[in-house]
Amino acid sequence: MAQVTLKLNGYSHTIGCQDGEEEHLQAMGQEVEKRLDIVRQVAGPSGEARMLVMAALLMADDIFELSKKAESGAAPARAGDPKLTRRLGKLARRAEEIAAGLEHP
Questions:
Q1: Is 1 helix (H, G, I), strand (E, B) or coil?
Q2: DSSP letter string over 20-47?
Q3: How far apart are CA 24 and CA 48, in angstroms?
Q4: Looking at CB atoms within 10 Å, which of 2, 24, 55, 75 has the fewest?
């Protein structure tokens, strides 16, 4: 079993994977880091758990939208799309609300 060390949000995480899957795991880590960059841009720096929750929500939203578009045959949104930017802002605000609720039960 191979291991890959990913740096996410400034922290190193060593993850095990099947031999030969190291490159794929690194690519997935880069995708997570891209979402973390978006979270930092929209919501500013925050705690690691909150940042990772928000990045996970962004990725889940991407998957949901891609699935919906694949079913309808619609073209995917492009980077810089104002509608996408508004949706990401709304999603980031909602994720902040959810994360704040988790910190203060």
A1: coil
A2: T-HHHHHHHHHHHHHHHHHHHHHH-S--
A3: 24
A4: 75
- Dihedral (C-alpha) 11, 16, 18, 19: value to the nearest 10 degrees? 80
pLDDT digits (tens, 9 = 90+) for 45-69: 788 888 888 888 888 888 888 888 8
Name the band, by pLDDT with cuts 50, 70 and 90, for residue 78: low
With a CB cutoff of 8 Å and minimum separation 6, the contacts of 54 are 35, 39, 43, 46, 92, 95, 96, 99
Q: Spell out a b/e string for 28-38, using b for 16 or more CB atoms within 10 Å of the CB, else e.
A: bbeebeebbee
Using CA atoms, how far apart are residues 32 and 58, in angstroms rounded to an integer?
9
Query: How many structural domains does the chain have?
Result: 1
Bridge-based pairing state of the strands 11-17 and 2-8: antiparallel
Q: 90: domain range?
A: 2-103
